[in-house]
Amino acid sequence: MAHPDAAADDRVGQIIILTDRLTEMITRETRAFEDRRPQDVAATIGETARLANIYRLESARLKQDPSVLQAASPPLRKALTASTRAFDAALSRHGEVLEAARTITEGLVQAIAREVVANRAKPVGYTSRARTTPGDSVAVTLNRRA
Questions:
Q1: Which member of 30, 41, 49, 73 has the lowest number of beta carbons within 10 Å of its beta carbon?
Q2: DSSP per-residue letters across 62-78
Q3: How many whole angstroms separate alpha carbon 11 and alpha carbon 32?
């Protein structure tokens, strides 16, 4: 005889697997950023985005129909809670590391832009109409939202 909550248990089990896999991938990406190896993230970023989208959809479904969680066995509900907490912690750390990387990158871009502006050639003289003649005209655009 089948367990009366087998479908709910199966669905919650699948969500736990998804959550754990996503947590593992985000933790690996965080480690890559911490090790200053962002290029290591490029290979898995598509898969991470795909899993994150599935997670978002499954979370929305559970929110719409919480009866699935209520029908699942208590050990699976407890495991899902633990997986979700681990995921939230990994996601929080990931956000901190990405913010630090963004701040560093933004600072580098601004420093480079300032250096380019400082090293631009100064006007070399005046024309017959009393206008300066540009030495080197290089456009620099700095987007503060970069």
A1: 49
A2: HHH-THHHHHS-HHHHH
A3: 32
pLDDT tens digits, 3-31: 558 899 999 999 999 999 999 999 999 99
Residues with Cβ within 8 Å of 96's Cβ and at least 6 positions away in sequence, in order, are none
In 3D space, the residue among 64, 51, 58, 57 whose CA is nearest the CA of residue 22 turns out to be: 51
Q: For 18-46, b where at least 16 C-beta lie within 10 A, e where not — what string?
A: bbebbbebbbebbebbeeeeeeebeeeee
**Which tokens sit at 135?**
């030495």
Note if the pTM is more than 0.85.
Answer: no
Give pLDDT tens digits for 78-123.
999 999 999 999 999 999 999 988 888 888 888 888 888 777 766 5
Any idea what DSSP says for residue 139? -
Kindly state the helix (H) or strand (E) to which residue 110 belongs, with its residue range: helix 74-118
